[in-house]
């Protein structure tokens, strides 16, 4: 693949870089060039800090995926043919249902990196039905594990669902229904149907998936306030710690292990949110990417740096950003922590700073700690645990944003049709669209009709007649006439276009089938002399020919009585038989 020849061939080749010649019989040089090519193709896993392959940047909290349910299997047209059973009847079975795509909550995951590496997900297709009433096998479902706190939206940003608890499932792409075989269309009037349905195509969506961490306490504050140091002091987490802003570029999770395990509510889940800047609600400093993780936290622990030039100003700025991003965040209970008490200058001004912060916050939940030395850290966590135990569960994403637009990804056809305005027979809902700039064209909107169009197998004549009966029974044909549709006007349903006929004489035959009929007629004209008999020479018997069902032929064919001279009299023995 890199332009190298295997050793043993004569001649001169090129190395992987395409510049250095080598002799084919020099195996050592070939191996050396191959190692160079492999090194260029597969970089070393040891990358410098800050590069795109840094493990710190492996935290992915957004992803866009394509999900598609499996197609249903086609129905089968078959008849039971066994010895001793002359009229076995239809035995074509239904096709199998297509597999669906599900998102399942897995608390062991904490990023959406797997979804970014694998974008397309599809359910298995159903198998085609078979004779002897053998239903096709259903397609396998596809299960996608996602971390707790995953929010799902469609491509237009409408809320589709969220997964918070372990094992929670969300169907994002239902599989298609299997097509019915001719056995399903058997009726007392038509005991030998010759039609079957195609399988329904699976539903396909592009989805925007984002992660909002689920934690009891969220650390917020300006950059370099000591949030990561505090997280490392109270948990076993190992966040990156350094003396410069934005050391933490991704949220870090940890479980507090300084509490008494016998106490209820112990074992707090803590989330270290990267530092926020003024204007974070509008996207400054990746504020939008960080603020969404705060919404899931039950209590906020506001870390204020004691060595800041304006600690009270930092406290006001962060609270204002929370309020501007989402007013619900401003109402969350907060614990204010004045950090870096190990610095002598901070210790001398700590009392004054805490008094000003208390006036601004309007509560007394304020403590001074030193995350570097562990001063007052245990007491802080114990008081925070008691506060968390008194709080209600964190609101869901839908509760936090009541004005959010919603969408149901596995919506049924009946639910989708409830939004339509026209009501036909038996409560059937549909809409008819017409543009005055394009006269004589009508589009019928109905989820159930569109599904029927996709599943109808137009190669069967009985399927065409059935589709016409459905249009008349549901009131669609009558509504088209009331909207001014005339014979020959174009009517569109999903991808099907046909000419409208108000008298019902047109079977709504698609264009490709009309072309096939024209080819058949041309073939018959060429092969047979259809004008050899003149119907006017014969006298009609007076009654229409009736078949076994008593319904007559569709075009009113009549029986004619023929004279003896119309036959060839060469063979006198066969006259009576020919008559």
* Tally of DSSP helical segments: 15
Helix content: 10-25%
Mean pLDDT: 77
Oligomeric description of these chains: single chain
How many runs of DSSP E, i.e. beta strands? 23
Write down the Rg: 38 Å
Helix/strand class: alpha/beta
Strand arrangement in the largest pleated sheet = 12-13-11-14-15-16
Percent in strands: 15-25%
Net shape: elongated
The N- and C-terminal alpha carbons lie at a distance of: 81 Å
Q: Quick one: biggest sheet?
A: 6 strands, mixed
Outline the low-pLDDT stretches. Answer: 1-26, 37-58, 540-562
Explain this structure to me?
It is a single chain. By secondary structure, the chain is an alpha/beta fold. 25% of the residues lie in helices and 19% in strands. The strands form 6 sheets. Strands 12-13-11-14-15-16 form a 6-stranded mixed beta sheet, sandwiched between helices. A 5-stranded mixed beta sheet has the order 5-3-10-7-8. It has a 5-stranded mixed beta sheet with strand order 17-18-19-20-21. β15, α7 (344-361) and β16 form a beta-alpha-beta unit. The longest helix has 18 residues, at 344-361. The radius of gyration is 38 Å and the shape is elongated. The N and C termini lie far apart (81 Å).
What would a concise description of this structure say?
With 579 residues, the chain is of the alpha/beta class. It has helices at residues 27-41, 113-117, 227-234, 287-291, 311-325, 327-330, 344-361, 377-389, 397-400, 413-417, 447-455, 461-474, 476-482, 511-527, 575-578; strands at residues 12-14, 21-23, 62-68, 101-105, 120-122, 142-146, 150-154, 159-163, 169-173, 204-211, 217-220, 252-255, 269-272, 299-305, 333-339, 366-368, 422-423, 429-433, 441-445, 490-493, 496-499, 539-544, 558-561.
């Amino acid at each position: 693949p890199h332009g190298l020849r295997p050793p043993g061939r004569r001649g001169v080749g090129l190395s992987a870089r395409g510049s250095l010649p080598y002799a084919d019989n020099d195996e050592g040089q070939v191996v050396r060039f191959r190692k160079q090519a492999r090194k260029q193709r597969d970089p070393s896993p040891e990358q410098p800090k800050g590069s795109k392959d840094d493990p710190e940047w492996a935290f992915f909290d957004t992803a866009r995926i394509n999900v598609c349910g499996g197609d249903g299997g086609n129905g089968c047209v078959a008849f039971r043919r066994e010895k001793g059973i002359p009229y076995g009847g239809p035995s074509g079975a239904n096709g199998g249902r297509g597999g669906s795509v599900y998102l399942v909550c897995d608390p062991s995951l904490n990023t959406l990196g797997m979804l970014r590496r694998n974008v397309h997900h599809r359910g298995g297709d159903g198998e085609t039905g078979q004779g002897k009433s053998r239903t096709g096998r259903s397609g396998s479902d596809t299960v996608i594990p996602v971390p707790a706190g995953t929010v799902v939206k469609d491509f237009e940003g409408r809320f589709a669902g969220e997964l918070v608890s372990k094992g929670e499932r969300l169907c994002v792409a239902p599989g298609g229904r299997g097509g019915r075989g001719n056995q399903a269309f058997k009726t007392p009037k038509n005991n030998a149907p010759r039609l079957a349905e195609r399988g329904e195509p699976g539903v396909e969506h592009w989805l925007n998936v984002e992660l909002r961490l689920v934690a009891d306490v969220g650390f917020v504050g300006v950059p370099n306030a000591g949030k990561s140091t505090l997280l490392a002091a109270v948990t076993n987490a190992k966040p990156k710690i350094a003396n410069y802003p934005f050391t933490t570029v991704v949220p870090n999770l940890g479980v507090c292990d300084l509490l008494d395990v016998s106490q209820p509510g112990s074992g707090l889940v803590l989330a270290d949110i990267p530092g926020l800047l003024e204007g974070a609600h509008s996207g400054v400093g990746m504020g939008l990417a960080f603020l969404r993780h705060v919404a899931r936290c039950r209590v906020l622990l506001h870390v204020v740096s004691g060595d800041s030039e304006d600690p009270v100003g930092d406290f006001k700025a962060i609270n204002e950003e929370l309020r501007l991003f989402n007013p619900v965040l401003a109402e969350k209970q907060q614990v204010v922590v004045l950090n870096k008490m190990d610095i002598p200058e901070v210790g001398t001004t700590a009392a004054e700073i805490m008094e000003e912060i208390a006036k601004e916050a309007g509560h007394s939940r304020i403590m001074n700690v030193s995350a570097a030395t562990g001063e007052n850290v245990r007491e802080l966590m114990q008081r925070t645990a008691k506060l968390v135990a008194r709080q209600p569960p964190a609101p869901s994403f839908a509760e936090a944003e009541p004005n959010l637009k919603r969408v149901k990804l596995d919506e049924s056809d009946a639910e989708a049709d409830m939004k339509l305005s026209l009501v036909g027979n038996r409560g059937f809902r549909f809409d008819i669209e017409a543009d005055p700039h394009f006269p004589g064209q009508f589009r019928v909107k109905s989820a159930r009709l569109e599904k029927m169009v996709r599943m109808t197998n137009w190669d069967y004549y009985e399927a065409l007649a059935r589709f016409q009966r459905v249009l008349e029974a549901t009131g669609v044909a009558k509504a088209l006439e009331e909207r001014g549709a005339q014979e020959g006007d174009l009517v569109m349903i999903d991808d099907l276009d046909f000419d409208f006929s108000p008298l019902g004489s047109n079977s709504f035959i698609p264009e490709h089938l009309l072309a096939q009929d024209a080819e058949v007629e041309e073939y018959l004209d060429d092969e047979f002399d259809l004008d050899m008999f003149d119907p006017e020479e014969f006298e009609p018997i007076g009654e229409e020919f009736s078949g076994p069902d008593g319904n007559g032929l569709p075009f009113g064919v009549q029986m004619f009585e023929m004279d003896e001279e119309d036959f060839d009299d060469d063979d006198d023995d066969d006259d009576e038989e020919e008559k």
